[in-house]
Amino acid sequence: MSLDTKKVLEAVEKVRERTKKKKFNQSVELIINLRDIDMKKPDARIQETVELPHTSSKKPKACIIATGELALKAKKAGADLVIGNSELESLATDKKRQKQIANSYDIFIAEAPLMPLVGRTLGSILGPRGKMPKPVPPTADIKTQITKWSKMVNIRLRSQPVLQCAVGTEDMKNEEVVENVIAVIRRIEGKLKRGLKNVKSIYLKTTMGPPVKIQL
Fold first, then answer.
1. Which of 14, 17, 57, 142 is most buried, judging by how many CB atoms fall within 10 Å of its CB?
2. How do residues 144-193 score in pLDDT, each as one tens digit?
3. CATH architecture of 62-150
């Protein structure tokens, strides 16, 4: 079994044809259904961060956990939320706020010395979502870090043999979405014991549109 670029392109074109226009820029989502996977075994615990060849105009929201100069740099760099030491400590007992933050932000970066506290306060809410912060030193170029992680997508196998992630947005060129799709599938293929033979089916869809099957 091999992945045909033309088949991926055909699926992207069909996704566009079948998607009704909305007032917002919809994401394009990739869904990979696996087979012959023993979810109880360690080798089934797929958790990957993939750098996409192309980024969309839909800017991911970044939450930076930092103090002092790094926090100031994060604000200047355009971080959507900057959490300092005192606010981080207060989050330990505020479950509602924890959930709100976890659901509202896509990228989490934390000053390395704060990671133990991050683990105690936000680990239980961010961990299951695959959003644990990337640790950086206090001297890090935070603007570069935000740009770097904006190109990444997290893919994680949870309780079901299904992998799902965003691979673009409606405003991207078809060829760009295709290259992003292939980048993700190739990474997953390398993590599966039997490669694409462990893939039952692959679908593409927009946020509000119907799924379209990629013919393997």
1. 142
2. 999 889 888 889 888 889 999 999 999 999 999 999 999 999 999 999 98
3. 3-Layer(aba) Sandwich (3.40)
